[in-house]
Write a structure and sequence with these properties.
Pectate Lyase C-like, 13-stranded parallel β-sheet, single chain, 22-stranded mixed β-sheet, 3 helices, mainly beta
């Protein structure tokens, strides 16, 4: 036969149906074939037996050889979980005897042994191909393995010349992790033997390594606070075990609080590590400060990527320190920001301080939390962003519930000082002094921020207030959009100073004073707001001036567009739909605004207030007081005399007129007569 390729093996995957495995290489005897079954999941291999597990078929030549290969036929179809490998392994024997002076059979005595040698060589090549070898380009042989006595209980490595050598076992290591010395966490020896390993079995279970300075876990993982002695029994002071657990954390670790009540006698400072997580099993995992009311966790400046979630944090008692929170960011007001914190799915209970507070915070996400006084008193705010140390920016407060009983000088959300880029969206804020409080400091004011889609109700004073002084300038570039503001004792929205902003699409109703009350609002747009049944207490906090929309003083260059101020029932809320005071209200331009059924009048506009109004139907215009008659500007065919009712000063453009009968001016009367052609 001829051996025209180097093929020496074949492998097929089982399918539970086929029993036939084709052999595409020649072989002399069925005894030259080896059949191996490999379990795919484990790699375990079994050599199968001829006749018992398989048979061989194929066309034989005169010598009984199989020059064109054949087939292995399995007794049982191999399952899809295994593979079958068939290879040729010829015994290295010379089986031909040549007798002197006798005729040499070419086929049997020459070709067949040469075929056998080729098959043996191919098997050797196959074995070499499946081993590690030295590259041909190496300048010297790799050398031999060290002697058996040298190799015993050592690790194979390579010396500086690349030759095999035996390595010493690294300090503290053993041949199997199972053989590591077991320790309790408290029983770890003093650090100093760098590289040593121990297996901790009673706390933070796993493999710990001595760095020479301290013991650390070999892998970032979840640390269970109960492994450090915290029980969650609601009785013992848990300050020490929680502090010890925090000290064991590395960057990327997480500290877990199983369900339980963990009292602490003082606030705790989180480690200055990036990307750590503090979490619990839900509101059943409660950490509470029992004495000082100075918060639970302090977060140091410079920390990036902190996550706190699924915990209940609680304090009680009287207000202690203004500005401090159950979670207190950058307590020292350091000029280094805290970046990217995420606080979510937490319950902040009965905080005598703030729920969350801090300074110089960037890109925080505070979402899906509950702030609830639980019968106590939020002495300050639910969430407070300060600007000490640096300007907080781009923080998002969304999808939270703020519940209080209007206690303290507080806001659900409070922003103080020079800050920008915040989003306060889709929160429910009930029962504070102010729902959202924007306050200036000597450092500046808020800008470029959005208050969107919040439901704010039952505030002791105002739902949203810009409480600004006149020393540092107004907040500006604010968007107050699509909020529902209702049942506050005073106003839905109040500004003491605001510029270059947009207030639009808000639903404002049943507040005790005005729907919106503006002081020193400039260069802004008030659009598509619905102010209904405000002044709910009748001549409430704003007295006779209570209105749907009230321009109190100092308001200039305002676009007032598409707003509705109306009363819906016999209680007769809102003395006025729209009103303006006498002090500094200038250039207020009203377009298509609507007022209806207000208690005393739809409009109460001081004579000193300037601007221009367009009637809701778009056909009339009025300078100054929108409560008077609107001048008409009308186009039509035929003379207006006796046909078009309008006040004196109105104009009419006749489409079918001619010289001196195209333009008409109303010069007398209030009915449909008194038109003079010009």
């Amino acid at each position: 036969m001829t051996i025209s390729n180097r093929l020496n093996r074949t492998t097929l995957l089982g399918n539970g149906v086929s029993t036939l495995i084709p052999i595409e290489f020649p072989f002399h005897s069925v005894d030259d074939l080896v059949v191996i079954e490999t379990i795919l999941a484990t790699g375990a291999q079994t050599i199968k037996a001829l006749t018992t597990h398989y048979t061989v078929t194929g066309a034989q030549d005169a010598l009984g050889h199989y020059p064109t290969g054949g087939s292995v036929v399995m007794v049982s179809a191999p399952a899809s979980t295994v593979s079958i490998t068939v290879y040729r392994d010829v015994a290295a024997l010379q089986q031909v005897i040549l007798v002197e002076n006798e005729k040499i059979p070419v086929k049997a005595s020459i070709e067949s042994p040469l075929d056998r040698l080729t098959m043996i060589a191919q098997r050797l090549i196959d074995r070499v191909d499946r081993t590690m070898t030295q590259p041909d380009g190496d300048s010297a042989n790799i050398g031999n393995l060290p002697a058996k006595v040298v190799r015993a209980s050592r690790y194979l490595g390579f010396d500086g010349d690349g030759n095999p050598t035996m390595m010493q076992t690294p300090t503290g290591m053993v041949t199997s992790l199972a053989q590591l010395t077991e320790s309790t966490y408290a029983g770890l020896p003093a650090p100093g033997a760098a590289g040593s390993l121990r297996k901790v079995t009673d706390s933070v279970r796993g493999i710990w390594m001595d760095t020479g300075v301290q013991w650390v876990q070999q892998y970032g993982q979840i640390i269970n606070v109960q492994d450090f002695g915290a029980t969650g029994n609601g009785i013992d002071d848990h300050l020490t075990p929680i502090t010890n657990a925090l000290a064991a954390m590395r960057s990327g670790d997480a500290l877990f609080f199983p369900q339980g009540d963990y009292p602490v006698s003082a606030a705790m400072t989180l480690p200055a590590l990036d990307n750590i997580r503090i979490f619990g099993a839900g509101f059943g995992s409660k950490i509470r400060n029992t004495s000082a009311n100075l918060g639970i966790f302090a977060v140091l400046a410079g920390v990036d990527g902190l996550e706190i979630d699924h915990l209940k944090l609680q304090s009680s008692g009287a207000l202690n320190v203004l500005g401090r929170g159950l979670i207190y960011f950058n307590p020292n007001a350091t000029a280094t920001p805290i970046k990217n914190p995420r606080i979510h799915h937490c319950y902040f209970a009965a905080a005598s301080t703030c729920g969350i507070s801090g300074n110089y915070i960037l890109d925080a996400i505070i979402s899906f939390n509950i702030f609830d006084n639980e019968g106590g008193a939020f002495g300050e705010h639910g969430v407070y962003f300060g600007a000490s140390g640096g300007s907080s920016a781009r923080n998002q407060v969304s999808f939270n519930h703020f519940r209080n009983t209007a206690s303290g000088n507080s806001g659900g959300v409070c922003i103080a000082g020079s800050q920008s880029g915040h989003v306060i969206a889709v929160n429910t804020i009930t029962g504070w002094k102010y729902g959202i409080l924007i306050n200036d400091t000597a450092a500046g004011y808020l800008s470029d921020s959005k208050i969107i889609g919040n439901d704010i109700s039952l505030q002791l004073l105002d739902c949203i207030i810009m409480f600004q002084s006149d020393t540092v300038g107004p907040p500006w570039h604010l968007s107050i959009l699509a909020n529902e503001l209702h049942h506050a004792t005073r106003n839905g929205i109040r500004t003491d100073w605001l510029a270059h902003s947009k207030i639009a699409a808000n639903f404002i109703y049943r507040n005790g004073a005005s729907g919106m009350r503006f002081n020193v609002l400039t260069d802004s747009t008030i659009k598509d707001n619905d102010c209904i049944d405000n002044d709910a207490n009748t001549n409430g906090a704003d007295g006779d001036d209570s209105s749907g929309i009230r321009f109190n003083s100092g308001n200039k260059r305002i676009q007032l567009h598409g707003n509705t101020c109306r009363v819906t029932d016999v209680l007769q809320y809102q003395k006025y739909g729209f009103s303006a005071g006498s002090s500094g209200n200038e250039d207020i331009h009203g377009f298509h605004n609507f007022a209806n059924a207000n208690r005393t009048a739809e409009f109460d506009w001081d004579a000193a207030a300037t601007g221009q109004w367009v009637h809701p139907d778009g056909t009339c215009v009025k300078e100054g007081n929108p409560g008077g008659a609107f001048l008409k500007r009308q186009i039509g065919a035929g003379s207006p005399e006796g046909a078009v009712t309008a006040p004196i000063g109105s104009v009419y453009y006749r489409t079918d007129g001619s010289t001196s009968t195209t333009l008409y001016v109303k010069t007398s009367g209030s009915g449909n007569t008194g038109w003079t052609a010009k």
